[in-house]
């Protein structure tokens, strides 16, 4: 197996190969571009893997699917599909999602300071697709699918989600072109504990038998 470096490196680097001075310069150039000087990943990484290749490798990781919702500045609701959901801590109760920093949802969570994560069931693929679609306006209201309620923070929760967690934003950690959003759980529920929706290799799967 070999890794394709970013286009600016213009060559292949094999695992185990000692990074050349140009690779060293490259990783500092990339680190500078993303403003992550002195981070552990910057110092430890010898090569920068080309992003389409990295996407294909990461697609082999299976995950559940959540819809992250938040409150718009005008009081309306917004949300997007995400697979980067993780439980972070039990005491205090913290969860995280990792969102593209330029996504509307990420910007709105920063603005409102609240969000909810809704875990989708195996039969809710349509909701996953809808909230991932880049097109959204009055005619293509993402919330037109599913029954939605309002949790205590004001974020929308799916009444028949497998589970939902309603959170107050506690931290935003920049991570390259993404932001790790950490929230303190204010309320949580498991309205419909059925088999979850699974996402693997860019395909939805109906999940484990439950
Ligand atoms: C299954 C699935 C999982 C996704 N997971 C993430 C994720 O974890 N983080 C992210 O930034 N985008 C993720 N996306 C892409 C967003 O859902 C998509 O870019 C969305 O249109 C963003 O909406 P917004 O710009 O209105 O916030 C995922 C898409 C799919 C289909």
UniProtKB/TrEMBL annotation:
Coiled coil: none annotated. Pfam families: Flavin_Reduct. Residues 58-206 form the Flavin reductase like domain. GO terms for molecular function: FMN binding; riboflavin reductase (NADPH) activity. Keywords: Oxidoreductase. Belongs to the non-flavoprotein flavin reductase family. This is Flavin reductase family protein.
């Amino acid at each position: 197996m070999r890794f394709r470096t970013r286009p600016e490196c213009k060559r292949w680097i094999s695992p185990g190969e000692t990074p050349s001075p140009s690779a060293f310069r490259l990783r500092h150039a990339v680190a500078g571009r993303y403003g992550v000087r002195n981070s552990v990943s910057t110092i430890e990484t010898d090569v920068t893997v080309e992003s389409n290749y990295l996407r294909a490798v990461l697609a082999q990781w299976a995950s559940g699917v959540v819809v992250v919702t938040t409150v718009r500045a005008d009081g309306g609701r917004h949300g997007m599909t995400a697979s980067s959901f993780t439980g972070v801590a039990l005491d205090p109760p913290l969860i995280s999602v990792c969102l593209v920093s330029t996504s509307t949802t990420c910007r709105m969570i920063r603005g409102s300071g609240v969000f909810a994560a809704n875990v989708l069931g195996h039969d809710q693929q349509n909701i996953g697709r809808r909230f991932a679609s880049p097109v959204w306006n009055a005619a293509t209201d993402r919330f037109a699918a599913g029954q939605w309620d309002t949790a205590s923070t004001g974020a929308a929760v799916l009444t028949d989600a497998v589970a939902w967690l309603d959170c107050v934003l506690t931290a935003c950690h920049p991570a390259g072109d993404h932001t790790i959003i950490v929230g303190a759980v204010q309320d949580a529920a498991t309205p419909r504990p059925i088999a979850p929706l699974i996402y693997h290799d860019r395909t939805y799967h109906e999940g484990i038998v439950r």
